[in-house]
Amino acid sequence: MRLKKPQPSTVRPFMITVDFKRLPTQPGDRILDIGCGSGRHSSAAYELKEVNVTGADIHFNDLKAAEERLRYHDELEAHGGGDWNLSVADIENLPFKDRAFDMIICAEVMEHVPHDFQAAKELARVLKPGRRLAVSVPRYLPERFCWKLSQDYYRVDGGHIRIYKKSRLVSLFHAAGFTYRSSHFAHSLHTPYWWLKCLVGLNGDPITPVRLYQRFLNWDIMQKPKSTARIDHLLNPLLGKSLVVYFDKK
User: Fold this and answer.
1) Which of 17, 55, 149, 166 sits between 20 and 30 A of 136, alpha carbons compared?
2) What percentage of the chain exceeds 90 in pLDDT?
3) Topology of the domain comprising 20-139+160-187+240-249
4) What phi, psi does 62 have (nearest 5°)?
């Protein structure tokens, strides 16, 4: 399904969870960003040289936001000369042919999916043999603290329904036909923000410390200073909010 492109608008800054240096591509590759949301990874992938990016999500409104981001990249010519398209899709029943993609990004999706093994098998079905899959999920301990601090954090429609340890995630994808390659943690600076937000309550206007921390995170995402990037890198082994795992299809 190709969506009609909207008029130009301001595109919000975004953070990238996966490490594209661990995702080798070549011109002509087809990349699937499943559960693309507002298109942060789709936009980053679109900057790679001469690739075709498919952003897919089950929520139409998220696809409209992704469309804005990608359209903005087109207007600025901030891309690698490839192409993009968007599709409404359910990860448990993907509307794509077997072996349709050369690389797949599945960022912060699996913790929402009712039948995660079915989803993993679908990702294996549409990925070419020997090609790479990147999966990110909330890291076990930071996520467990959020669940302890606030029931509202996970008791929402479409919220998180499970917490993965790395061993569980690796076993799940191994059973679906993938080989583990490597892993790392990301977004350590975001972990204290979510603990604080869960502690004081997720609903209503945020108190001043939460508001100030959010302002700092927005500034960091927009400005990308080397100093905070260095701090984030150093703290990731201890406080990284996300676990990112890379697999190759057998």
Assistant:
1) 149
2) 82
3) Rossmann fold (3.40.50)
4) -65, -35
- pTM assigned to the model: 0.92
Catalytic sites, residue numbers: 108
pLDDT of 10 strictly over 70: no
Give the number of other CB atoms < 10 A from CB of residue 82: 20
Least confident window among 29-33, 208-212, 246-250: 208-212
Helices and strands counted in the chain (H then E): 8, 7
> What does the alpha-carbon distance between residue 44 and residue 228 come to, in Å, rounded to a whole number?
20
Query: How, if at all, do strands 178-186 and 52-57 pair?
Result: unpaired
* Helix orientation angle between 140-149 and 191-200, rounded to the nearest 10 degrees: 10
Distance separating alpha carbons of residues 113 and 170, to the nearest angstrom: 16
Q: Which of 44, 14, 10 is nearest to 220 (CA)?
A: 14
For the chain, the structural domain boundaries read 20-139+160-187+240-249
